[in-house]
Write a structure and sequence with these properties.
Blueprint: E1 3-12, H1 20-26, E2 32-37, E3 40-48, H2 52-65, E4 69-74, E5 78-79, H3 81-88, H4 92-100, H5 102-105, E6 121-122, H6 123-132, H7 138-158
Antiparallel strand pairs: 1-3, 1-4, 2-3, 5-6
Helix pairs in contact: 6-7
Length: 159
């Protein structure tokens, strides 16, 4: 069974329980590492499942059983050129060239902060382009689509 790595970003957990770690494990989060970053609770999972989405869905249920209010899953769906470089192993210079020559390369345009010096791309759009051009395995595109879909679902639940 494959192991999938992802993080759930939460706004709260049942921190008032006597044995927090046991409470998480009893709720099914025995494979989560808990950390606190930039004002958020992060549950980092390395979870075995038949599919990536299956691993995420079960982890979401387990985290909610532990009292978590979930905001999103990471790795994030919006990426910078630096994020793209890190996720693909390609240089920032190469990605910048593609992004500046969209008409010639067909590289997707940014989705957010179009006029800013730090534009953001939808990771799913970039992953699709990368797969089409042989720079990434198709499974990574499926992961990107799953993360986007789950984050949209979580966002609808919050609002």
């Amino acid at each position: 069974m494959p192991i999938y790595e992802f993080s759930l970003i939460a706004s709260r957990l049942s921190l008032g329980v006597d044995d927090f770690e046991a409470h998480l494990a009893d709720s099914g989060c025995f494979d989560a590492v808990v950390s606190f970053r930039k004002g958020h609770i992060v549950l980092s999972f390395a979870r075995g499942a038949d599919t990536f989405e299956g691993a995420i869905d079960v982890a979401i249920g387990d985290a909610r059983d532990a009292g978590a209010v979930l905001k999103r899953i990471e790795p994030e769906s919006l990426v910078t050129i630096t994020d793209i470089s890190q996720r693909t192993g390609l240089t920032k210079d190469l990605i910048s060239i593609w992004s500046l020559n969209k008409e010639a390369s067909g590289f997707p345009g940014p989705s957010y902060r179009v006029t800013s010096s730090a534009p953001l791309w939808e990771w799913r759009d970039v992953a699709c382009w990368m797969v089409q051009h042989g720079h990434m395995h198709p499974a990574e595109l499926l992961h990107a689509e799953t993360i986007r879909r789950v984050n949209l679902r979580l966002q609808r639940e919050i609002t």
